[in-house]
Design brief:
By secondary structure, this protein is an alpha+beta fold. The chain has nine helices and 14 strands. The protein has helices at 2-12, 18-25, 29-41, 65-71, 90-99, 148-166, 226-230, 236-257, 264-270; strands at 46-49, 53-56, 81-84, 107-110, 132-138, 171-173, 177-180, 183-195, 198-208, 277-281, 287-294, 300-303, 309-312, 318-321. A seven-stranded mixed β-sheet has the order 3-4-5-9-8-7-6, sandwiched between helices. It has a five-stranded antiparallel β-sheet with strand order 13-12-11-10-14. α6 (148-166) packs across α8. The radius of gyration is 21 Å and the shape is elongated. The protein binds biotin. Biotin (BTN) binds at residues 89-91, 113, 116-119, 122, 124, 133-135, 176-177, 187-189, 205-207.
Length: 326
Amino acid sequence: MKTEILKLLRESGDYISGQELCGKFHVSRTAVWKVINQLKEEGYGIEAVQNKGYRLNVNPDVLSFSELKSRMRTKWAGRNIVYYEETGSTNIDAKLLGEQGAEHGTVVVADKQNAGRGRRGRSWQSPAGKDIYFTILLRPEFEPDKAAGLTLIMALSVTQAVRNCCGLEAGIKWPNDLVLNGKKICGILTEMNVETDYIQHVVIGTGINVNLERMPEEIEQTATSLLLEGGKETARARLLQEVLERFEENYESYEKDMSLVSMLEEYNKYLVNKDKQVRVLDPKGEFEGIARGINDLGELLVETENGKIVKVYAGEVSVRGIYGYV
Ligand code: BTN
């Protein structure tokens, strides 16, 4: 009922009488009053005016189970939400849920992680109240070699969401990072559980630097936040809602075509490595070339000095810009 009341208040933008709420949920005035108080405790400004009812004042940056649940309009991505005020790592939580049989599209969200994990064994700083840390659990029915595309789909979905919600020109640094004005704003860590030749489950963990006023010193040269670049706060739940909506749509296209064909043009438009000199860190041998975009399998096409196009597969290697981070 809390989620429903929140949704009604947000969508109406006006006063809703206590009587109307009682009638809708077949509960007493005291029960409604209790829910309103719980919402206030969670940080919502709710005005209560005699003879008029309740009105949601501002839409603060609340990231809570009720806020997320009341926003979800997707079919499966984030329909099942597991929310923690604090956890170790949402990727670990999601993997555990995967083993316990949680449904496709389950999303684990945390306001704070105390053991946030980055790629290559690095950590991901995850302070409370500022950023987005979430992991989506997927049970794809396709072959494991198609799973690398999922990271690219998440990168595209976050880019689209940041552009729509914040009006900021985020770009993609193939395959796992999002950048804004040359600095990282988002990282993605995809982990897969494969049984011989089929995917048990995949978890895609995403960290977005949203409302941090200052980046930690160790990363301030290469990382930034949406607030630092755009100058205004973003409501994290709204942004996450948009990410999940975009992700569901993009994932369904990928499943249907079994390729990135329908997203290719947009992806390549946002690709910050495009037509830039890159160094490919391939365990079989590093090389340099000019990135020309991705193909519909998600491979980065790198043109080497002798004009040859090398297809670089996201699962095996990463690329570095040779002039700085991008
Ligand atoms: C990177 O190194 O760029 C990837 C960072 C991924 C961080 C996210 S935050 C949510 C999820 N939980 C984790 O422990 N890591 C991912």
